[in-house]
From TrEMBL:
Protein name in the entry: Thioesterase
UniProt keyword annotation of Hydrolase present: yes
Ranges annotated as spanning the membrane: none
Presence of the UniProt keyword Cell division in the record: no
Family: Belongs to the 4-hydroxybenzoyl-CoA thioesterase family.
Amino acid sequence: MTTPTPMEATFDVRFYETDALAHVSNTVLVGWFESAREPIFRMFSPTLDLQNWPLIVASYKVDLLAQIFYGKAVTTKTYISRIGKSSFDAYQELWQNDTLCATGVTTMVHFDYKSQRSVPISDDVRAIMESHFKELNVDG
């Protein structure tokens, strides 16, 4: 099996993203993860045409593993961890100072807003997604 290619994005931690405990607020991570999914959005809509948007978020989960602090950039690594007929999971990691600080999984659906129905993921998009596929270890 080949090593998956992560889609990476780096963000500077801004002062206002910190909370009273002097670390990054947990609410900020969801925004970073969404911003880091832009390469996935472009797989489905290369011009990011909001009038014909093809995706909808079905669920997301974020696990906080270590504190994140102001003054050092963070890097997200985004992979595809599941591909179904019309839905997929984006698995993301957030790193700071070589420490894995958080992980997240977002389930997205290829969606036609006009018909209000899911639609199959095309073979072309599926092939691109597979180059970023990372098998997740599931306990149990």
